[in-house]
Amino acid sequence: QLENLNVDVIEAGFPIASPGDFEGVKLVAQTIKGCTIAGLARTLKKDIERAWEAIKYSESPRIHTFIATSPIHMKYKLQISSEQVLEGAVEAVRYARKLCPEVEFSAEDASRSEKEFLYKIFEEVIKAGATIINVPDTVGYAQPEEFGRLIKDIKENVSNIEKSVISVHCHNDLGLAVANSLEAMQNGATQIECTINGIGERAGNASLEEIVMALQTRMDIYHKVTRINSTQIYPISRLVSKLTGFTIQPNKAIVGKNAFAHEAGIHQAEGRIPP
Fold first, then answer.
1. Integer Cα distance of 112 and 92 in angstroms
2. Domain Pyruvate carboxyltransferase: where (predicted)?
3. Which whole-number Å values give the CA distances from 88 to 26, 81, 130, 135, 153, in the listed order?
4. Looking only at Cα atoms, what is the longest distance across the chain?
5. How many percent of the chain have pLDDT more than 90?
6. Strands 103-108 vs 165-170: parallel, antiparallel or unpaired
7. What are the pLDDT digits (tens) for 158-171?
8. At the top level of CATH, which class does the domain 2-232 belong to?
9. Sheet holding 36-42: strands in order across?
10. Measured in Å, how far apart are the chain's first and last C-alpha atoms?
C-alpha cells in the first residue's frame, strides 16, 4: 500500500531488534520497488551490519544510524561525553557508507541539543559520508517558530550542508508535529519523516495525510510538491486502522468520517454557494 501511495522512503524497521524485525525488513526490501528501503541501526557495528544484511536486497537501500546528542540524554541515557558521541557517530557513518551508498544520520533529541554541537556533529558525519542528516524533535518539545529557526540555523552554520539532505522527524506530544514539520520545510528541510494516521509512540508522529494535503491545498504558501498519490490516502488510512486496532477519531483531519462534512446550517449553505 505504501508503494501504491508513492512514498519516497519506507523505514521498514530495526533489524537487530529481533529475528522477526530482521525478516520483516528483509521481506520489504526484497518485495517493494520504486522507493528507498531504510533500516535503523544504533551507532554500533553489529547494528549496522545487521541492518545492511536486511536491506541489501532493495534496489535503493539506506542505512539509518542514530545517537542522542542532547546534554540530558548524553549524561543520563548514554552516560558518555559529547566527544565520545561525536567519535561514535563519525565512525558509524563511515562504516555504514562502506556498505551502503545512502546513509542517514539522526541526532536524537536534536531539539534539546546545543546548537554548536549539532553544527559540529552534522558537519563531521557529512564529511564521513552521510547523505541525509535528520533533526528529530524526539520528545515533542519544540514549537514551530523555534524548530524552523533550528533548521535555518543548521542550514546556515553547517559548512558542507549542501552535500546532504536535511530531514526532520517530529513527535506530537504537544500536538505540533505537523506544524513543526511544515515550518521545517519552509526553512530548508526537504525530507519529512511521518506516518499514516500519525501513529507512533506516546502521542504519535507527524501525520502523512495532513502534511501532504496541507502542501497540496496551500501551494500558494508552501510552493512544494510531493509524488504522493493522494487518492490512496483514505484506503491506506483505513487499512492501518484495521491492522493496528487504533480507531480513527471521527473529527481526525483529512481521514476522519466527519472531515469536510458540514452539519451547521450556515456552513451547509456556504458549501453550496458557487465560487
1. 22
2. 1-234
3. 26, 11, 14, 18, 24
4. 64
5. 93
6. unpaired
7. 999 999 999 999 99
8. alpha beta
9. 9-13, 36-42, 61-68, 103-108, 132-137, 165-170, 191-193
10. 35
